[in-house]
Amino acid sequence: MDLAELASRYDDRLRTDDFADVDASENGLQVGPDHREVESVAFAVDAAEQTVEAAADRGADALVTHHGLSWGGIDRVTGRQYDRIAPLIENDVALYVSHLPLDSHPELGNAAGIADLLGLEEREPFGEVGPEHVGQRGRAPDPIPTDRLRETLEAELDHFGQGVRVLDFGPEEIEEVAVLTGSGVDWLDEAVESGADALITGEGKQKVYHEAREAGLTVFLAGHYATETFGVRSLQALADDWGLETTFIDAPTGL
User: DSSP labels for 96-131?
Assistant: First the structure.
C-alpha cells in the first residue's frame, strides 16, 4: 500500500481535517515522503526514542501513534526533538499521528474502547472540545459496585503495576459512567452536569479530590497510558484488515 493511501484512509475514517482548528497536535502524516510503499506498520501510544527505535528494529515502514512529535509546529530540530526525529529518517520509518480525532471516534476511539470493555449502553458523546467531543457517556447494563469496577479496570488495563486510584465519593453502585481518557479531569463538571455517577480518566490533578468530593462523584484514575492503548489497537486492526503486516509496541509508563 502506498503511504499516501494509508494516511488518506486513516484521515478519512478519523475525520482528521475537522480537528485542524481544535487540536494542538499536527494530526496525520508528520514524518515521511509523499509516496513510498508500506508493507509493515508498527503501532504505539507515544512517539518517542523508545518506540521509534523499536519500530525500526522490527522492520516497520511506518509508525502510527496517538501522541506525536509536533504540537503546533516544530521551530528547531535539536536536542530531544532531533533524537526522536533522526531515527525515523535514518531508518526510513514514516510517522502517522492521531490525537483528538482518535479520542473522538465513536467506534475506534480510546473512550469507545473503555465503553466497550464495560459494556456501556445508550452511549452519547461527552467531553466538549470546541465543536467536537472527545469522550463518551453511557449506562452500565447493571449497577456496578465501585470495587468491582476498579478490579475490572486493573485487570484489563496496562497500568504497569501501578493499579487504579479511586476517589470514591459517588454512590456505592455505579450506573451512569462518563469516560474521557488521558488527562480528562478538567471535564469533571460536565460529568456532574450529565448525571454521571463516575468519571473514568487517566491522570488526576490536586484540585480534583475536592471537586469530586463536593460533587459526590467517583473518579477512577486508571493511568494516562493505560487508558489510551485502545485507539491505536483499533487502528492496528484496520491495518490488519487492509492486508498489512502489523506489530504493537507496548511501552507503558505507569502514569
Answer: EE-SHHHHH-TTTSHHHHHHHHHT-EEEEEEEEETT
Cell readout for 237 is 486492526
The single-letter code of the amino acid at 97 is V
Structure-block grid coordinates of residue 86: 533522526
CA 206 vs CA 11, 23, 135, 192: distances in Å: 36, 25, 22, 18
Domains and CATH numbers, the chain: 3-99 (3.40.1390.30), 105-228 (3.40.1390.30)
Local structure of 83: helix, strand or coil? helix
Phi, psi of 172 (to 5 degrees): -65, -35
Cβ neighbour number for residue 233 with a 10 Å cutoff: 15
Tell me the C-alpha distance between 185 and 44, whole Å. Answer: 24
Whether pTM exceeds 0.85: yes
SS3 content of the chain, % helix, strand, coil (to 5): 40, 25, 35
- What is the full per-residue pLDDT of the chain (255 aa) written as tens digits? 999 999 999 999 999 999 999 999 999 999 999 899 999 999 999 999 999 999 999 999 999 999 999 998 888 889 989 999 999 999 999 999 999 999 999 999 999 999 999 999 999 999 999 999 999 999 999 999 999 999 999 999 988 888 999 999 999 999 999 999 999 999 999 999 999 999 999 999 999 999 999 999 999 999 999 999 999 999 999 999 999 999 999 999 988
DSSP state of 160: T
